[in-house]
Write a structure and sequence with these properties.
6 helices, five-stranded parallel beta sheet, about 220 residues, alpha/beta, three-stranded antiparallel beta sheet, globular, Rossmann fold
Length: about 220
């Protein structure tokens, strides 16, 4: 399956999500690309748009390889293979501290636009523009679960089938449009997949907040 861009993917997701009965829903997007996806979903579903602030933890000497993730409140998820790629306690501690510093900066930026939403007792839709290793999504799931939502749905345009299996065990519902065998990268499933800037993510969050406020 090929998507034109993140808006196209989100519109297709929204069509599938409309069949479910959500209670006072909140759509959480993982920055940066997931915030664009979340803004469209929030608009289409009449939901509140928010961000899930998590950052991947990078493997030593392999910054593109995620070995885990850290959330806004400091909660950490580390993959089982972290040691196999050279991540020891010292390198992990250093990486956690660096990523937490980035999260604090992003938190100040995003929370000026949109204060952290209350999640308890509500239907949460957690989204991104795709899943590769799944470590960031798993960390976000743990954070949302700790907030006592009514139910938790992960909505994703594309992901490897084995990662979706792991995620499905942790949430109430998974809506994924494509799970191609031989998955290589998220971007090859999009015709347009430009890197999203902080400014673009902030603008998407402003639009989502404005739509909800105008109801």
């Amino acid at each position: 399956m090929m998507f034109h861009d993140r808006t196209d993917a989100a519109l297709r997701l929204a069509r599938d999500l409309r069949q479910y009965d959500f209670h006072d829903p909140v759509v959480l997007g993982i920055p940066r690309g997931g915030v664009l996806t979340a803004a469209v979903l929030a608009r289409e579903l009449g939901a509140e748009g928010e961000v899930a602030l998590v950052r991947k933890l990078r493997a030593p000497a392999q910054p593109e390889l995620a070995i885990g993730a850290i959330a806004e409140d400091g909660e950490v998820h580390v993959s089982a293979f972290a040691e196999q790629v050279g991540a020891d306690e010292e390198s992990l501690a250093r990486e956690k501290q660096e990523r937490l510093g980035e999260l604090e900066q992003r938190s100040r930026m995003f929370r000026e636009i949109r204060p952290r939403a209350a999640l308890a007792g509500r239907s949460i839709i957690l989204t991104d523009d795709g899943i590769a290793t799944g470590s960031t999504m798993l960390a976000a799931i743990d954070v949302v679960r700790a907030s006592s939502p009514r139910d938790l749905t992960v909505a994703i345009p594309v992901a490897p089938p084995d990662r979706i299996g792991r995620i499905r065990d942790r949430v109430d519902r998974v809506v994924c449009l494509a799970t191609p065998e031989g998955f290589a990268a998220i971007g090859i499933h999009y015709e347009e997949f430009d890197q999203v800037s902080d400014e673009e993510a902030c603008e998407a969050l402003r639009e989502a907040a404005a739509v909800k406020a105008g109801e």
